[in-house]
Design a protein that fits this description.
The chain is α/β, with parallel strands linked by helices and about 325 residues long. About 45% of the residues lie in helices and about 15% in strands. It has helices at about 25-35, 45-50, 55-60, 80-90, 105-110, 120-135, 155-160, 185-195, 210-220, 235-245, 255-270, 275-280, 285-290, 295-300, 305-320, 330-335, and strands at about 1-5, 5-10, 15, 40-45, 70-75, 95-100, 140-145, 170-175, 200, 220-225. The strands form two sheets. It has an eight-stranded parallel β-barrel with strand order 3-4-5-6-7-8-9-10, surrounded by six helices. Helix 7 runs parallel beside helix 8. The longest helix is centred in the last third of the chain and has 19 residues, at about 255-270. The structure holds flavin mononucleotide. The site of flavin mononucleotide has 22 residues, from strand 4.
């Protein structure tokens, strides 16, 4: 049983990864309903939190129905992180996650994110500062090292445990790799040998079979999924189905449409119609991947700006699928069928 403080999360956890501009509350709720055992907010700047920047304060909002949920924060200054952690705790998540893995230059050069991998004592001070500031469990998400010549996760992991981290998520790449190259899962069993807290595997879990293999080969306490879950919250259910029955079903077109529309409408409630419709474009390929006619659907949706028209177009696709002609009209053939 994976426990973070008093929080019992289960076994072989499936976690929805923090993703900027992706894992807002509308998506997190769906992921939880469809089988994720815990979800994470996108990363939130500690500097912005302590300034009470409006955009960041919105990101702190979670819903009771999505629990367990973590708020992920990042920054380079332990005192600022402490204050931000206190404010985040007051927003009512179940735990706080510290981002020590973001590879983006702008983050790294402020000694934040994966920049901390170059300065382990600073990383330790940061984690200790946050642990001391809050009552909630604190977890850390990081990478295996800065580059191929400085992989230091086997030194860093016990240090983070000592500093009070209650679980570690390891994106099995170096900072220099960014998102390229294969994630090297072989680090997970080695890390598990040097710590006694739960270790979650992240990187390249794309299918239910991948998840099964990740648990089997590494003994990870959980797998965290990012890109493969975008527009595909069904993946969490499929992984559990495969685990429990040995096989799994694809979601029907009707379900894809229903879940997508619900997600879109909620996204517009959060952001307002114009921004909500625009921001939603990143999800369509996930929702309709592999369905005949979906590339035309997607290119149509890129042109439409009103919520009503988008919903109409998606529902039309749901009713007629590939039986549409190039303009989205239903062909005589499909009508006759
Ligand atoms: C669009 C996008 C946004 C991301 N934002 C965050 C973030 O806010 N915090 C974080 O720790 N990682 C972030 N990541 C990294 C992912 O959480 C994850 O570590 C990485 O994508 C590898 O997992 P995957 O192979 O399942 O995609 C982001 C990744 C993507 C693709």
């Amino acid at each position: 049983m994976v426990k973070l403080g008093n929080l019992e999360l289960g076994e072989q956890l499936l976690l929805l990864a923090p993703m900027e501009d992706v894992t807002d509350v509308s998506f997190r709720l769906l992921a939880r309903e469809l089988g994720a055992d815990a979800v994470y907010t996108e990363f939130i700047s500690s500097e912005a939190i302590i300034r009470a920047a409006a955009k960041s304060m919105k990101k702190l909002v979670t819903s009771p129905q999505e629990r367990p949920v973590a708020i992920q924060i990042y920054g380079g200054d332990p005192a600022v992180m402490q204050e931000a952690a206190r404010i985040s705790e007051a927003a009512g998540p179940d735990f706080i996650d510290i981002n020590c893995g973001c590879w983006v230059k702008n983050v790294v050069r402020h000694n934040a994110g994966a920049g901390l991998l170059k300065d382990p004592p600073r990383m330790e001070r940061m984690v200790r500062a946050v642990v001391d500031a809050v009552k909630l469990p604190v977890t850390v998400k990081t990478r295996i090292g800065w580059d191929a010549n400085s992989i230091n996760i086997l030194e860093i992991a016990p240090m983070l445990e000592q500093a009070g981290a209650q679980a570690l998520t390891i994106h099995c790449r170096t900072r220099v790799q960014g998102h390229s190259g294969d994630a090297d899962w072989s680090w997970i069993p080695r890390i598990k040998q040097v710590v006694s807290i739960p270790v979650f595997l992240n990187g390249d879990v794309k299918t239910p079979e991948d998840a099964e293999r990740a648990f089997r080969e590494t003994g990870a306490d959980g797998v965290m999924i990012a890109r493969a879950a975008i527009g595909n919250p069904f993946l969490f259910r499929q992984i559990k189905e495969l685990r429990n029955t040995g096989s799994y079903m694809q979601p029907s077109l009707e379900e894809r449409v229903r879940v997508c529309v619900r997600h879109l409408v909620h996204s517009c409630e959060i952001r307002g119609e114009k921004r909500g419709v625009f921001a939603f474009r990143k999800y369509y390929s996930g929702y309709f991947r592999g369905i005949p006619g979906s590339s035309r659907l997607r290119s149509d949706l890129m042109q439409i700006t009103s919520l009503e028209a988008v919903v109409e177009r998606i529902e039309h696709f749901g009713e007629h699928g590939a039986g549409e002609d190039a303009t989205g009209n239903v062909s005589d053939l499909a009508m006759a069928a």
